[in-house]
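Reopening closed ticket. The problem is back. First fold of the pair:
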Amino acid sequence: MPSLIVGIAGGSGSGKSTVARKVAELLTDISVASVGMDAYYRNLSHLTFEERKQLNWDHPDVVDMELLGDQLEALASGAAIEKPVYDFAAHLRTARTERVSSADVVIVDGILLFWNPRVRALCDIKIFVDVEADIRLIRRIRRDIRVRGRNLNDILDQYLTTVRPMHEEFVEPTKEFADIIVPHGGSNEIAVEMIAARIQQRLRP
């Protein structure tokens, strides 16, 4: 059976994954699969680690939009995919993959999800999570230290040189494509409930 693709975009640290998780938890009688756009960074193993550290990881060119589009099309048609697994500490795509089976609903999230016209068109429902810049920065610092093994100086340098300017150039403008804008991220319980209700409504015969 075809799947309903729900796209969730927004700035780094806005709470996209939290919104996705909370929506999925409310869809108790529906099968849900989750896909993170972060897994689709291009395979740049030909570069040294120092060269990879210097790349602008918030620019659309570093994301393998072709592969993401192909795999979303497969999921939408009812097929399973082998999703890439990315190592954020090494800035490399690993040799492993994770099998993602098709489901009634596929929730995909990423900062640049609505930038690519093909990927954007594959999203049946488009959600933009809108959170203040200082909150997003604090969340990014905590995540990158705890989960990705980064140090504070590197995180702040990256934020000032690429994350903030790329957000203003490539992420924020895509808000206009959203069907639903969610302020305050995953703490907005009413918005999360409304999204879950809308998904259930779309799936009714």
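Second fold of the pair, where the issue appears:
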Amino acid sequence: ARKAGLPILPGTDEAVANENASTKAWELGFPLMVKAADGGGGIGMRQVDDPGDLRETAEATQSMAEKAFGDGTIYLERYIPKARHIEIQVFGFGDGHAVHLYERDCSTQRRFQKVIEESPAPDFPDVIRQKMATAAVVLCHQERYRGAGTIEFIVETETFEFFFLEMNTRIQVEHPVTEALTGVDLVVEQLRVASGEALSFAQSDIAPAGHAIECRINAEDP
């Protein structure tokens, strides 16, 4: 992502050991996030506001990651207190060409788990939306990505500065939001690509209309 020119949150490029966690943390500044390298779905993420809590939090995250993922490797990343979680749906042809199908706003979360996903993102500048979509497509071009994928960004709420978070190299449970908005059946297109056929649409064919919202149900006692 860095090679493709996408903005990246400041963080450690390598695994962090307990003995050098403090040095790395002060280089990044507080608040920061301790993250499991093999984490996912919001598991293995802990916020550190006070430098005095760093060691305990790092050890707890390592223990959690070891149990959940079989790998206790952690890294540090700058934390943005006021942020939105915006992701771009992409589809790559596998030959360096790719298209985007606009964004989904997944900012409403509980325990770092998405609860509501919608598109278009409400109260979101078109110029930022286009910049994010372009960045996502550039990354797909570079990697010669094939099939459906989602590129996720964290967006500072006041400045709208955005940073690359990760790419999910698969179709996601939020895909009906995009399908309702664009009229493109992403599952059908996945099957087309897998069968060696060409996609049935181009970027110029994608014209979002209306507004779509998907809600998840958490089976828990609140």
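Update: turned out to be a display glitch only; the data is intact. The first helix runs from residue 18 to 28. The chain has a mean pLDDT of 91. Please close again.
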